[in-house]
Design goal:
This protein is α/β, with parallel strands linked by helices. Helices cover about 40% and strands about 15% of the residues.
């Protein structure tokens, strides 16, 4: 009996070490068939609209640098928070890890984009930025963001991207979510991190927005920063599974 007990203990230890030592560059949970059906329903909705004659074309308006173009006919938006400067494990970068991933996704699905940026920039120094982010989280702050998404009613599908800071989304992402009506919208999260995974942020998004939240993908920031063919294929497979 003692030997049997030791055997099971050894097996459990091996399983624990395997789980903790996973080194996958990007991970998407198994995409449910229902997720694909929801995406197709939203995409078909836009196709139906495009087939109808436009009898009341809107007057031309000047482009705003703070808002995505809204005359592209797409019903997909990629909104993301991303910070450049000094980042963990990648050093000082000109383009943030999440932005690299966001731009790739937007290109693959033909989406409009919106970069969530704060009026008061975060410190360029990594440690100083961590301190500010931690205090904002403690205060449940809603930092002011630059610009807004116009004609939000045209977007049925929103990819929402962010890094994981202190086990959660940056508080600016909460500012963004609080700013819009998410009724009848589908949200697809994606995040970058250095080992924490999604940290339950997909559930937080569902709670805050009340939207349908579909299968997310999470990726190490260092992997996103060095976006290679293997990583692109991983993201492409996730999008394929979702129906894009």
């Amino acid at each position: 009996m003692k030997k049997l007990s030791l055997f099971f203990s050894a097996v459990m230890l091996c399983l624990t070490l395997t789980a903790c030592g996973s080194g996958e560059p990007a991970k998407a949970s198994s995409v449910a068939e229902s997720d694909k059906s929801i995406v197709q329903e939203k995409l078909n909705k836009t196709e139906s609209k495009s087939e109808q004659p436009d009898e009341t074309a809107p007057a031309e308006t000047a482009d705003s640098p703070d808002s995505p173009e809204t005359d592209s006919g797409t019903n997909i938006l990629v909104a993301y928070f991303s910070r450049a400067d000094e980042n963990y494990s990648v050093g000082t970068v000109e383009v943030g890890n999440t932005q690299i991933l966001a731009e790739y996704i937007a290109g693959e699905v033909g989406a409009d984009s919106f970069h969530i940026e704060t009026v008061t920039p975060y410190p360029a120094d990594y440690d100083e930025c961590c301190d500010v982010a931690k205090q904002e989280q403690k205060d449940n702050a809603r930092p002011e963001i630059i610009g807004s998404v116009e004609n939000t009613e045209q977007y049925d599908i929103v990819f929402l991207g962010y890094p994981i800071w202190w086990g959660d989304m940056p508080m600016a992402v909460y500012t963004f979510m609080d700013s819009y009506d998410w009724t009848d919208k589908v949200v697809i999260p994606f995040c970058t991190h250095e080992g924490s995974g999604l940290s339950g942020t997909d559930s937080s998004i569902a709670s805050v927005t009340g939207a349908q939240v579909l299968t997310a993908i999470d990726m190490r920031g260092s992997t996103a920063q060095a976006l290679n063919d293997d990583t692109r294929q991983t993201v492409r497979s996730w999008l394929d599974d979702l129906g894009f």
